[in-house]
Amino acid sequence: SSVTLRGENGAIIDGGGKGTVVTVAAPAVRLENLHIRSSGQRLSTEDSGVFVTKEGAGAEIIGNTLTQNLIGIYLKGPEAAIVRQNVIRGLSDLRVNERGNGVQLWNTPGSVVEGNTISQGRDGIFVTTSRDNRFHNNNFSDLRFAVHYMYTNDSSVTDNVSTGNKVGYALMYSKNLVVTGNQSL
Question: Which percentage of the chain shows pLDDT scores above 70?
Answer without folding.
Answer: 99
